[in-house]
Design brief:
The protein is α/β, with parallel strands linked by helices and 252 residues long. It is 43% helix and 20% strand. Strands 1, 2, 3, 4, 5, 6, 7, 8 and 9 form a 9-stranded mixed sheet that branches. Bound molecules: S-adenosylmethionine. InterPro entries: CFA/CMAS, Methyltransf_12, SAM-dependent_MTases_sf.
């Protein structure tokens, strides 16, 4: 850690004294979980287990059910305004407890929604969401995964792939693994929307839980795997912290 980042942290602590103890608690828990984990995915799965046990809505980043409903609806409305239609086949990467997924499932034809997540615990909570919202007849698939290679999924199958607030918790090698493989499972003409925590300064992470990237880094990385990436300017008009990029298979 550099002297300037230590200084930055000290200044931040003086400005927000109420956040010091919760941060110290999170730091200790994360250190403990990291010591027991093989790799990032294993570590983040343990973070999700601990967070989900306390409160599944908070585990996916919503401090209240009201906020959970609001951010889920924002994701859904945006995708529908951008061309999602009921006959599309959709893959949601990092579907969590179906904050947006429940709306996608309700809207899409039965069997057209596929959700994957690294956390079995949040998928149990997702099953509860299906029951709570009466979505059983839509028969969505919910599957735990170890990686983002999609090796068990068919080629050129999905019209729409969606990952909200997943790459904001992912180191670059996880995003790269996704880019290297996502083109195979997308239909020609399909698209993949993901959000990320954007920085215009130095790329960094906080406790290996929250990762900040420059737009150019992700656009260039996608390009290396035959994907064309577009920064979604209209998403910026909405009152949410993260930015959004849309990726398509490049036309050859
Ligand atoms: C902040 S939550 C967002 C959940 C959901 N997308 C939403 O907006 O409600 C992030 C989710 O991504 C999952 N996740 C994190 N890294 C992942 C990865 N590499 N592959 C699949 N899921 C991942 C977490 O377990 C968690 O459920």
């Amino acid at each position: 850690m550099t002297r300037s980042s230590l200084l930055h942290q000290a200044r931040y602590a003086l400005r927000h004294p109420d956040r010091v103890i919760p941060h110290a608690r999170r730091l200790t828990r994360d250190l403990w979980l990291r010591l027991q984990s093989r790799d990032h995915v294993d570590y983040y799965r343990a973070v999700m287990r601990s967070d989900t046990e306390r409160n599944p809505d908070r585990a996916v980043g919503s401090k209240s059910r009201e906020k959970w409903l609001k951010i889920g609806k924002a994701q859904f409305d945006y995708l529908v305004q951008h061309g999602l239609s009921p006959e599309h086949r959709m893959l949601e990467i990092g579907c969590g407890n179906l904050r947006a997924g429940r709306l996608f499932i309700d809207y899409l034809s039965p069997g057209h929604y596929y959700g994957i997540d690294i956390s079995p615990d949040i998928l149990f909570a997702a099953q509860q969401t299906l029951a709570d919202y009466g979505l059983q007849d839509k028969l969505p698939r919910l599957t735990p995964v170890h990686d983002l290679r999609f090796s068990f999924l068919p080629s050129e199958h999905f019209d729409v792939i969606h990952a909200h607030s997943v790459f904001s918790h992912s180191p670059l090698h996880v995003i790269e693994e996704c880019f290297a493989n996502v083109g195979r499972i997308m239909k020609p003409g399909g698209w993949f929307d993901f959000t990320f925590d954007r920085t215009q300064g130095k790329e960094h992470h906080v406790l290996r839980e929250d990762f900040y990237y420059r737009t150019e880094t992700l656009v260039e990385l996608a390009g290396r795997y035959g994907l064309t990436a577009t920064f979604m300017e209209d998403w910026e008009l909405l009152p949410y912290k993260q930015s959004k990029i849309r990726v398509r298979r490049a036309v050859r």
